[in-house]
User: Which sequence fits this backbone?
């Protein structure tokens, strides 16, 4: 039986992370020696009055950090060789080096074959400052968790306020943040267009849009600049 006190269900820290922290301290303080066997997830869950899934999540986190090793049919054991941890210095890692790819040479032609913005236009200093602020914040551990499927709530509120101020959104409207334009197009296709319906697409058009509608079984009709000008 592990010498673990009851977890705090009122804490903002998830129960599995509280359990992970307590076992980690036992290992680092050598109260659990290398090679010691940890209780089975069902056994420890019964001891602490937890769901077995909570214990499994704590064990998985311990194993991902090299603190324990799991063996099918045998159980989980304190690792023989603890993973050596190093402190990363993010400003140095984010600083461009001589090996960094150079910005593409200026050309009078615009290539749409790939999406590659100029490195010279990227706000690197602001990005470094943002990374440092998040990593050193008291809530840094939350960035390792899955967030809302609708997107980061503070960002959604901020964008919605701006949209309402500019007259783009109304009071009952909401904002959904996607992982990129491809996911956005896919959601629009699934939500607004049925299989077999026809949509009008510009020609040329971003291929990701065309492919999304093709997968949905949607008929596509191309419109070029000449047609669009006659319709205006």
Assistant:
């Amino acid at each position: 039986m592990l010498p673990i006190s009851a977890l705090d269900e009122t804490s903002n820290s998830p129960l599995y992370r509280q359990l992970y922290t307590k076992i980690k301290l036992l290992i680092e303080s050598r109260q659990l020696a290398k090679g010691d066997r940890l209780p089975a997830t069902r056994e420890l869950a019964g001891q602490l009055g937890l769901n077995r899934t909570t214990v499994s999540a704590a064990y998985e986190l311990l194993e991902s950090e090299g603190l324990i090793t799991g063996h099918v049919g045998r159980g989980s054991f304190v690792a023989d060789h603890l993973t050596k941890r190093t402190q990363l210095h993010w400003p140095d890692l984010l600083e461009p080096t001589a090996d960094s790819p150079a910005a593409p040479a200026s050309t009078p032609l615009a290539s749409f074959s790939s999406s590659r913005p100029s490195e010279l236009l990227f706000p690197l200093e602001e990005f470094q400052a943002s990374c440092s602020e998040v990593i050193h914040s008291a809530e840094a551990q939350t960035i390792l968790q899955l967030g809302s499927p609708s997107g980061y709530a503070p960002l959604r509120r901020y964008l919605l306020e701006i949209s309402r101020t500019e007259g783009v959104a109304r009071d009952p409207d909401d904002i959904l943040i996607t992982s990129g334009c491809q996911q956005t197009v896919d959601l629009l296709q699934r939500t607004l267009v049925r299989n077999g319906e026809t949509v009008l697409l510009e020609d040329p058009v971003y291929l990701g849009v065309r492919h999304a509608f093709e997968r949905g079984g949607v008929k596509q009709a191309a419109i070029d600049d000449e047609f669009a000008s006659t319709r205006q």
Residues 228-232 have pLDDT under 50 and may be disordered. The chain has nine helices and four strands. The CA atoms of residues 196 and 218 lie 5 Å apart. Strands lie at 68-71, 75-78, 198-202, 219-223.
